[in-house]
Amino acid sequence: ARKVAEHLGTDHTQLIVTPEDALAVIPRLPALWDEPFADSSQIPTFLLSELTRRHVTVSLSGDGGDELFCGYSRYATARTIWNVIGFLPGPLRRMFAHALRCIPAQAFAGFVRAAGNCLPETVRKGNPADRFRKLADILSTAGPQALYRDMVSHWREPSSIVLGSHEPCTVLNDPSAWARVPGLEEHMMYADTVSYLHDDILVKVDRASMGVGLEARVPLLDHRVVEFAARVPLSLKVRNGHSKWILRQVLARYVPERLFDRPKMGFGVPLDSWLRAPLRTWAEALLDESRLRREGFFDPAPIRQKWREHLSGERNWHYYLWDVLMFQVWLETTA
Questions:
Q1: What confidence score (pLDDT) does residue 115 get?
Q2: Which of 23, 133, 193, 244 could be bridged to 71 by S-S, CB 3.0 to 4.6 A?
Q3: Are the CB atoms for 109 and 152 separated by under 8 Å?
Q4: Spatial distance between the Cα atoms of 81 and 240, rounded to a whole number of angstroms
Q5: pLDDT at residue 123 above 60?
Q6: In angstroms, rounded to a whole number, what is the distance separating the alpha carbons of residues 35 and 39?
Q7: pLDDT at 214 (0 to 100)
Q8: How far is CA 66 from the centre of its chain?
Q9: Has residue 44 got a pLDDT over 60?
Q10: How far apart are CA 19 and CA 23, in angstroms?
């Protein structure tokens, strides 16, 4: 961002966020969002809004570009995966998935160490057990639309932890709500636009910005841009492995390609390590088994199991746990 600003000759304001800065925001989250909102990028979004408000009262956000122009990496990933496994009969895929789930986590780590550089870097980095368990989930999926649903879900079966519940019908699981679009990528972009963008991204930015008195406007969601994007064929959105291809061509008129032709980066925080260290005591109190049982919303057993596995480093369950923690801290403030 700094190099792009230097090239364009625009002002650039930079903030290096410390863990203490970010952790100080967490007690404010229930009041800022006023609901159990569990996208952890709410923390850097709030800090960015707070910094911006020191200089201006109105800001522009680039949200909507990924949904309209096929920018999320999961679109390409889902297409690649389904091209590989889609020809396999469902029972055979489920059999392989069951076999993978039966292998202990330690065995995955040993296999990756033994295979070394023979495996792709994407498999070697991170927690091997997480990678192979995700592969098991992918293999057991019922179809391409279900694959997308699994990729954007944390708890695949919410009713397994929320007592007496059933998952409501949404665009993610109700075929009658799906748009008539030609392919998997178009289906995912549509579903993200009416669910993830609508109920997560825009809520996150609106609450974070207005929490500090900042207006955040979203020019890419001007109805004329949305209507134009809907008419643009997929071949102009994805080309030669590049997502948002048509937007890149416009950007290249003003910024050298070397400044933006780089891997896509999210807007996350290191929740996995925070929950094992600075947030451990806070999280333990909210996930206390007797507390969960007394409140009566969750089945404590699967939550406590994931908490133990996360603390031991055996698995990374931070996104799953953050969902529960945000409900718990919201519930605590409403009591």
A1: 64
A2: 244
A3: no
A4: 18
A5: no
A6: 12
A7: 98
A8: 13
A9: yes
A10: 6
Structure tokens at 110: 């040993």
Q: Which amino acid is at 63?
A: D
For residue 172, CA distances in Å to 83, 145, 196, 204 come to: 21, 8, 10, 20
Count of CB atoms situated within 10 Å of the CB of 70: 23
**How far is it, in rounded angstroms, from Cα 175 to Cα 300?**
32
Pairwise pLDDT comparison (94 vs 236), residue with the higher score: 236
pLDDT above 90 (res 326): yes
User: What are the residues facing 216 on neighbouring strands?
Assistant: 59
Q: Mean per-residue pLDDT for 78-104?
A: 84
pLDDT tens per residue across span 3-34 = 999 999 999 998 888 888 888 999 899 999 99
Residues 53-56: contacts with CB within 8 Å, 24+ apart?
53/209, 53/212, 53/213, 53/214, 55/13, 56/214
Of 91-95, 169-173, 241-245, which range is least confident? 91-95
Q: What is the pLDDT of residues 183-192, one digit of tens each?
A: 999 999 999 9
Torsion 201-205-207-208 (CA) sign? positive
How large is the angle between the packed helices 184-191 and 73-85, nearest 10 degrees?
Answer: 140
- Residues 273 and 313: their CA atoms lie apart, in Å, by 9
Paired tokens of 142 = 């019922």
pTM to 2 decimal places: 0.86
CB atoms closer than 10 angstroms to residue 216: 19
- DSSP H or E stretch at residue 58: strand 58-60
Phi, psi of 3 (to 5 degrees): -70, -35
Q: Are strands 58-60 and 215-217 parallel, antiparallel or unpaired?
A: parallel
Q: Which of 213, 173, 186, 184 lies closest to 53, judged by CA?
A: 213
Which burial class, exposed, middle or buried, applies to 119 when counting CB atoms under 10 A from its CB (0-12, 13-18, 19+)?
Answer: middle
What's the token pair of residue 137? 């989930």
Report the distance separating Cα 134 and Cα 142, nearest Å.
Answer: 15
CA atoms of 219 and 64, how far apart (whole Å): 9
85 vs 95: CA distance, rounded Å: 13
Please write down the HEC assignment for all residues of 80-115.
Answer: HHHHHHCCCCHHHHHHHHHHHHCCCHHHHHHHHHHH
